[in-house]
Amino acid sequence: MRLYGYWRSSASYRVRIALALKGIAYDYVPVHLLKNGGEQKGTEYAQLNPAQLVPTLELTDSESGATVHLNQSLAIIEYLDACFPEHPLLPANPLKAAQVRTLALDMAADLQPITNLRILQYLTGTQGQPDSAKQVWIEHWIAAAFTAFEQRLATTAGKYCVGDSITLADVCLVPQVYNAKRFGVDLTAYPRLKEIAERLAEHPAFIAAAPEQQPDANT
Ligand SMILES: N[C@@H](CCC(=O)N[C@@H](CS)C(=O)NCC(=O)O)C(=O)O
């Protein structure tokens, strides 16, 4: 398998965590989101993902032998979960699975897309907003999402976001916490979220998947 990603991309980070949890070996191909106007927009990469976003997972289909490119981190992770059932990321219990998906989507569908690079570039570029507007925007949407997440944890959490096993919810939380810290967001108002994120940060798979551990870190 080959993962096209970027060290600081939260969607790539999610897939790296899932790969590490499941102990799947893969090659890593960095796609620089800023250099030369963004390599994700280049003709070569856009063939792998028409949405011009990372990540892309390249794999060989075991049935046809064809090389396949998968996009959308949650689709990729669900594929990995189905093919590599060790350490399941979605509980078998349908109610618990729905709770996991709710928390995962809070981060991956409601928060991350509106704080994504292209949105921020549109805000300060096309919309002509000052650079400070970016920070205000990010802080506002992180607070909205983390407040809801914190309240949900009151009924779902154990050691981790849902119960005592690591799930897709945890996989989606950690990259957004990384992003929040990057923008200087204080997590004190979210004690459960903070405690779970700190616990996850000590897990070997989350350590291996961390942005600073990637070959393209700080480039
Ligand atoms: N829903 C997509 C989101 C992918 C995404 O937004 N990727 C970001 C990095 S986290 C990206 O490639 N941004 C480049 C850009 O905004 O131009 C997924 O989960 O895979």
Briefly, what is this?
The chain has 219 residues and is of the alpha+beta class.
Description:
There is one protein chain. By secondary structure, the chain is of the alpha+beta class. It folds into two domains: 2-87, Glutaredoxin, CATH 3.40.30.10; 94-205, Up-down Bundle (Glutathione S-transferase Yfyf (Class Pi), Chain A, domain 2). The chain is built from nine helices and four strands. The mean pLDDT is 97. The site of glutathione has 16 residues, from helix 1, helix 3 and helix 5.
- Radius of gyration using CA atoms only: 17 Å
* Structure classification: alpha+beta
Widest sheet: strand order? 2-1-3-4
Which geometry do the CA atoms define?
Answer: globular
Domain count, please report it. Answer: 2
> Biggest β-sheet, characterized?
4 strands, mixed
CATH T-level topology of the largest domain = Glutathione S-transferase Yfyf (Class Pi), Chain A, domain 2
Please report the first level of CATH classification, the CATH class of the largest domain: Mainly Alpha
